[in-house]
UniProtKB/TrEMBL annotation:
Its EC number is 3.1.3.16. Residues 1-38 are annotated as: Disordered. It comes from Cuscuta australis. It catalyses: O-phospho-L-seryl-[protein] + H2O = L-seryl-[protein] + phosphate; O-phospho-L-threonyl-[protein] + H2O = L-threonyl-[protein] + phosphate. The keyword Oxidoreductase does not apply. Belongs to the PP2C family. It comes from the Eukaryota. Pfam families: SpoIIE (PF07228). The lineage of its organism: Eukaryota, Viridiplantae, Streptophyta, Embryophyta, Tracheophyta. Residues 64-300 form the PPM-type phosphatase domain. This is Protein phosphatase. Residues 1-15 have a biased composition (Basic and acidic residues). The keyword Manganese applies.
């Protein structure tokens, strides 16, 4: 069985915008890597709490770690992510690898998609309102004019202590509470290893297919948002165990999760979530799946008001 994620790219595709074929940089020209460093093949991001005070009982502090697959041709891999702390918004995307059979770098699509999503979130927050993740996804889709397709997940923490998220495909999020996974977003796929995906192919999906998620959170919860490089390889129980009790910085926890996923991905005999799903589909499969791995870890914390007093909600 091929371990490359399937996509609709075997069908006819729409032509990309005229300038897209001339790009030579692996990053789109308007990509914003503020707060990130590209180092030794790892794209890491660490953020503190938001820079501006929010009238909310909760806030979110996030960090990320990225392990691209080893590739001389595509050293940046096909995943992308962003963290926008001022808007309490995060996102991940996973370019569909099967495009490589047609000479297309799906990483260009996922990186542009996340760059446009962050730009939309910043524009929304700059207008004085909250961030609508569905609008961010829709704006990003409309503004991404290169060939390819990608899964995507975008999440924002609202002022009333609810995470509002949209998800397309098999990237997603989990909420760890009191040492166990309290919630996990469902995978969207047509069949095994064929996820819903945004893209320019005529058989690709549009933002309207996105699952819309709302979950109430509270201080102490930990959000793990990731591409399938994590969730295909690491069981929920191990995710919760590796998250721990919140003593480490979120970026360090993201690194721990990503490195564990990589170790499992290279194993041929360990029991993994993707092996279990393959067998359910009648496919013989064992071990992990080697893939790009992006993990964002976000701590939900009690917010301080402008005087520095911690806001505590005593309700149940």
């Amino acid at each position: 069985m091929s371990r490359t994620k399937r996509g609709p790219e075997e069908a006819k595709t729409e032509e990309p915008a005229a300038d897209s074929g001339r790009r030579t940089s692996p990053l789109p020209p308007d990509a914003d890597l503020n707060g990130s460093t590209l180092q030794m093949g790892f794209l890491t991001s660490n953020t503190a709490a938001p820079l501006q005070p929010r009238r909310s009982a909760t806030t979110m502090a996030a960090g990320a770690f990225y392990l691209p697959k080893e590739s001389k041709k595509r050293p940046l891999g096909e995943d992308a992510h962003f963290i926008f702390p001022e808007g309490q918004t995060i996102g991940v995307a996973d370019g569909v690898g099967a495009w490589s059979f047609h000479g297309v770098d799906a990483g260009k699509y996922s990186r542009m998609l996340m760059s446009k999503a962050e730009a939309s979130a910043r524009s929304q927050a700059g207008g004085g309102g909250g961030v609508n993740p569905m609008k961010a996804l829709t704006d990003a889709y409309a503004g991404t004019n290169v060939l390819g397709s990608s899964t995507a997940c975008i999440l924002t923490l609202t002022d009333d202590g609810v995470i509002s998220a949209v998800n397309v495909g098999d990237s997603g999020l989990a909420i760890v509470r009191a040492g166990s996974v309290e919630y996990k977003s469902p995978v969207q796929q047509r069949e095994f290893n064929y996820p819903f995906q945004l893209g320019r192919g005529i058989w690709s999906d549009r933002p309207a297919v996105a699952a819309r998620i709302k979950v109430e959170v509270r201080p102490g919860d930990v959000i793990v948002m990731a591409t399938d490089g994590l969730f295909d390889n690491v069981k929920d129980e191990l995710v919760a165990e590796l998250v721990g009790g919140g003593a480490d910085a979120p970026g360090k926890v993201a690194e721990r999760l990503a490195k564990e996923a990589l170790k499992i991905a290279k194993s041929k005999d360990v029991e993994t979530p993707i092996a279990l799903e393959a067998r359910k589909a009648g496919i013989e499969y064992s071990g992990g799946k080697y893939d790009d791995i992006t993990v964002i870890v976000a701590y939900i914390e009690a917010a301080a008001d402008q005087s520095g007093t911690i806001a505590v909600n005593l309700g149940t």
